[in-house]
Amino acid sequence: MVRHFALALLAVLLWAQPAAATEAEVKACFEGPARTAADKGAGKDEFSRSIIEMGAGKLCEPVAKTTILACLDALDADTAGAKDQYRCIGTVANTCTASTFASSEFRKVVCIGAEEAIWLGELERLTASLRQNLKDAADRDRLDAMTRDFFAYRDRKCGLTRTVFEGAEPDAAYSACVTETAARHVLDLREMNARFDDEDDEDDEDDEDGKDAGTLAPAPK
After folding, report:
1. For helices 170-214 and 105-133, what crossing angle results, to 10°?
2. In terms of pLDDT, which residue wins out, 84 or 27?
3. What backbone phi and psi angles, to 5 degrees, belong to 192?
4. Tell me, what's the pLDDT at 200?
């Protein structure tokens, strides 16, 4: 019953459906090379086994990155009025935790960590991009404060999540929490950066209009 409860928890925290185009690649990586590498830890002490299993999960980070970025590109290309902004969250973690690789709670943590690494990379990249776009020093200070507050909030929120779900795979619950929280922050940062991209597009259009205006034939005298 505890196992079923924990699986339900993961479904709540990482509820998006994996992208069909890359789901098979993610599953193949974790059930193939990652599982083979992780199984080499069998019979070793817990610490050594954990190191080996974490290293195995990193083998799938390239396909995890491809999967998530492809999902975000598809999200950008979706012109539907009520598109699901959160559908990319869990695209890797859900597939991995449902695979034969995830035979223990720690391996589920490894699964979720493979996705978290990608969201944290995007968080760092988008924060730097937004900081560059902000011209006012006071706004950059606000961004820095927001970033510090975000990580403090994440740690408190997910620490509480671990406590609440103690006894029902709390480490997996904590990992799911930090990953989803980071992913949602990334989506907010993407929206902020998109505003500057829209302004740049408008400036480019104005420049093109100016070029066209400069090529008009002079009015007859």
Report:
1. 30
2. 27
3. -65, -45
4. 56
Mean pLDDT of the chain: 83
Is residue 39 within 8 A of residue 115, CB to CB? The reply is no
DSSP letters, the chain, are -HHHHHHHHHHHHS-PPPPHHHHHHHHHHIIIIIHHHHGGGTTS-HHHHHHHHHHHHHTTHHHHHHHHHHHHHHHHH---TT--TTTTTTTTHHHHHTSTT--SHHHHHHHHHHHHHHHHHHHHHHHHHHHHH--SHHHHHHHHHHHHHHHHHHHHHHHHHHHHTTTS-HHHHHHHHHHHHHHHHHHHHHHHHHHHHHHHHHHHHHHHHHHHHHTSPPPP-
Structure tokens at 149: 């507050």
pLDDT bin (cut points 50, 70, 90) of residue 21 is very low
Domain boundaries, the chain: 2-196
Q: How far apart are CA 155 and CA 30, in angstroms?
A: 28
Q: Which amino acid is at 179?
A: T
Q: Which residue has the higher pLDDT, 5 or 154?
A: 154
- Provide the 10 A C-beta neighbour count for residue 13: 24
Where b means 16+ CB within 10 Å and e means fewer, 141-155 reads eebeeebeebeeebe
Q: How far, in Å, CA of 121 to CA of 130, rounded?
A: 14
pTM for this entry: 0.80
**185-213 residue pLDDT tens:** 999 999 999 998 766 555 544 445 545 44
